[in-house]
Predict the 3D structure of the following.
Amino acid sequence: MKIWSVIIVCLCAASMTGCSAEGDYIYGDRFDALTLNLEDPTIGIYPSTSVLSDPNNPFKETRSGIETKWAIESAREPIAAFYSWATWLATEPTGEHQYYVALNLRAIYQQERVAEGQLGTVREMAVEAFRAVLDHFPDAVTYDITGTVAYPITIDAYRAMVELGGDPGEWSLIVDAAGQEVLVK
């Protein structure tokens, strides 16, 4: 299977006066050569913006485009997807961006995409990223493939955090009077 990466290019106006805020992309190099920089254990966890100065981040100059972030996510290269989502989170904080950062940190951990001695750090980062969804974006949603139907992600974030051995702290998953699962603090 050939895995495509995205090279971000900034298209400047003919007058060379400025660049677009979001990168256009050209298919080319492979994403599987990327490595995760673990010097800052808060990278990709709101409110940290350290991803914007990470030398390993291919999106630090220009974040991926709106459609491109989903293409990167579907490429199943969690380190590249982590950097794409973390860059979006640093520049446009939303629960959806934090959630996808967390999902990709979990995938990096589960797929052992870092050295064995770093797996514990990545697991803790994933736990903290899922917790950040709950603490900072408790009403967070993501959308179906059509982009029109929203569904909440906090219960999934809670479950993922607990599955990774994270302490839910003040958060509890209960069943309300209507028989629906509800996350409460």
Observations:
- The first strand starts at residue 6 and ends at 9.
- The beta strands are 6-9, 24-27, 141-143, 150-152, 172-175, 181-184.
- Confidence is low (pLDDT under 50) at residues 1-21.
- The chain has one domain: 34-184.
